[in-house]
Design a protein that fits this description.
Length: 112
C-alpha cells in the first residue's frame, strides 16, 4: 500500500525532485517560496524531512564543509524509489480530482 502524503510532505518531495541531489533544507524552503509563494520555516522543513527519512521516502547525505558556512557541512536529500512512488501516486490522485477544473475555475495556472 502506497503511503498517503500530507500537503507539506507533497510540497517538500516535489521540491526535492526538482532540485535533484542538491536539495538542502534551506534550498527546499527557497524553492517552495519561489514557486508558490509559501513561506515554510526551516524547522518545519527539517522535521518533515526526518519524518520522510524515517519512512524511507528520502535519503540524506552530508556534503563537504565550506568556508562560507564557517566550515560546517550541509545535509542534502534525495528521493528513494519508495519516495518517487509515493509522490507519483499522490500526484495522480490530485490530477484525477482536478480533471476538468480549468473550465469551472477559469484559466489554468501559468508555469513559473
Amino acid at each position: 500500500m502506497t503511503k498517503r502524503l500530507a500537503e507539506l510532505e507533497q510540497l517538500v518531495l516535489m521540491a526535492v525532485l526538482r532540485l535533484g541531489g542538491t536539495a538542502s533544507g534551506l534550498d527546499l524552503a527557497a524553492e517552495i517560496k519561489r514557486r508558490i509563494g509559501r513561506v515554510i520555516q526551516p524547522g518545519a522543513i527539517y522535521t518533515t524531512m526526518e519524518r520522510l527519512r524515517d519512512q524511507n521516502l528520502v535519503e540524506s547525505f552530508t556534503g563537504r564543509a565550506t568556508p562560507e558556512r564557517g566550515g560546517r557541512r550541509r545535509k542534502y536529500y534525495v528521493l528513494t524509489a519508495e519516495g518517487e512512488e509515493a509522490l507519483s501516486h499522490s500526484y495522480q490522485l490530485i490530477e484525477r480530482m482536478a480533471h476538468g477544473f480549468e473550465e469551472k475555475l477559469g484559466k489554468p495556472v501559468e508555469d513559473v
